[in-house]
Sequence to fold (417 residues):
Amino acid sequence: MNKPLKLTVLAAALAAGCSTVSPVANQRLEEARASYQRAAADPLVQRHAQPELQRAANALAEAGRAAKDGSSELVEHNAFIAERSARTALSTAQGRQAQLDLVAAHEERSRRLLQAERARAEQAEAERARAEQARLEAEARASLLGEEKAKHAEFAAAISGLESTGVRARQTERGWVLTVNNDLLFESGTALHSGADRTLDTLAQFLRKHPERSIAIEGFTDSMGSAAAAERLSERRAEAVKFALVQRGVESHRIDARGMGPNFPVASNDSEAGRQQNRRIEVVIRSAGAPGDKAGEGATTPEAPRRQ
Amino acid sequence: MKTIFDVKRIIYLSFAALAACATTDPPQSELSAARAMVAQAQPVAEAAAPAELANAQVTLARAEIAMLHGQYEDARLLALRAEADARLAWTMAENARVQRALQEERSAR
Fold:
């Protein structure tokens, strides 16, 4: 910018030193100079319109020379060219800056659009993943529910199979309790008779199918005879049932066998019918996942009141 | 003798006239540049810089007339001014176009 300024100063000095040109020409020259200085002071012009500014400076210098020569016409002419060139420089600079701003704004908008697009895609993906997760969870729940239902149905079928052999089943907080009259199981003493096979087969089959379940076999007697003898007998009978189940493929550690003797009667021992009901085996099928109750549990936490 | 003197004078005068003419050639290149610049500005500057365009057109017409009349120095200066006006008109139109595009870009979402 130094050169145009120097030229301007030179032109001004030349013009000042000469008064032979017309006042109109002098005025035009002053206007052109002012116009040039406005343009030269504009940082946008400095940055974007040096050639246009130079054209104005050259014309001003020419006007200065013309003033020295006393040619009003050439002063006016070059002042005109300088003034137009200065305005052109301003307009050019603004246009070029706007062009740069336009490119920047366009890039900015493109970036914003791209970001928004990416965010939308990410959100859609997250929603899709959430929906998929929910679907999988629902499926898992449904399948779990189905399994539960199937188990329940199977269990109910097994119980009803047992009931058809004369076993009475009831649900308690310890699990299912199956009650079988000794008459249905034992010929005499602890010898099982052949009619017991179906009951034992069905029970063993159920236990083999549900390895997670354990059972307690409890023998009961009526109140006839000595209590000690009755307890031993009831224990041997429980053991006999356990042995029969082990023979049918049920692991022995899953089965607790114990004798309760005449304790926990389910009917009065005053009549033969009542005593017959009290002579029985009870099989407790513990709930799945319930802690295995140990021997003696039947005595300490009896399922009293034992209702019929 | 007198006739010869007259012929000599005529010849001298003719040389002088030719010499005067030779100091100012027809400003063909200046006029061409002015015509081209006006033609470039006209389609875009009618709306954005009508006054500047009109100045350029009128000045160019005066330059053409001066050219026809053999007033070459006048024609040269007028052509230069017409070109300067046309350049300004074109630049203003171009600036206006870019500013408009910038506004549109900034208001676009």
User: Anything to note?
Assistant: Chain B touches chain A through 18 residues (CB under 8 Å).
